[in-house]
Amino acid sequence: MGAWFGKSKKQPSRVTEYDKSILQLKQQRDKLKLYQRRIEQSLEKDKELARKLLRDGKKDRAKLLLRKKRFQEQQLEKTDTQLDNMERLVHDLEFSQVEMQVLDGLKSGNEALKKIHDVLSVDEVERILEETREGVDKQR
């Protein structure tokens, strides 16, 4: 019963703002790809319809469909540009995350080196090397 009336202890989320932003970018990329597919399908349908209209002698309607086709092709080019930008942004974000991990590794390595240098002074290292040489000389 204590768990029902007591405060629940929530675990902190392991999903960071960085992860959320990457997910949003990838979702938006997928939506753009779907939009492109719809435009491409519409282009195919309009192309077939324009051919049929030309066969039926309705040139004005066919011209209208060709204008619509040009507009949709421009939209496809714009979405291609947006997709390229989004892919570049996702790549840059992921690479910056890797760079941060490398920097964190370098920081911890530097801290470990400082601790080692604090423990071992130059005199201490020279003394150990001298003792090692003496030990080798005794063995000979």
Care to describe what's here?
Pfam families: Snf7. This is Charged multivesicular body protein 6. Keywords: Endosome, Membrane, Protein transport, Transport. Helix content is 87%, strand content 0%. The protein has helices at residues 2-5, 17-55, 59-119, 122-139. It contains four helices and no strands. Helix 2 packs antiparallel against helix 3. It is elongated. The model has no long low-confidence stretch (mean pLDDT 88). The chain is mostly helical.
Element order: H for helix, E for strand? HHHH
Distance between the termini: 77 Å
Q: Summarize the amount of helix as a percent range.
A: over 70%
| Uncertain stretches | none
Task: Look at the structure and give the mean pLDDT.
Answer: 88
Radius of gyration: 34 Å
DSSP strand (E) fraction?
under 5%
- The counted number of beta strands is 0
Q: Total helix count?
A: 4
Shape: elongated
User: What characterizes the major β-sheet?
Assistant: none
- The structural class is mainly alpha
InterPro entries: Snf7_fam
Subcellular location: Endosome membrane
Keywords: Endosome, Membrane, Protein transport, Transport
Family: Belongs to the SNF7 family.
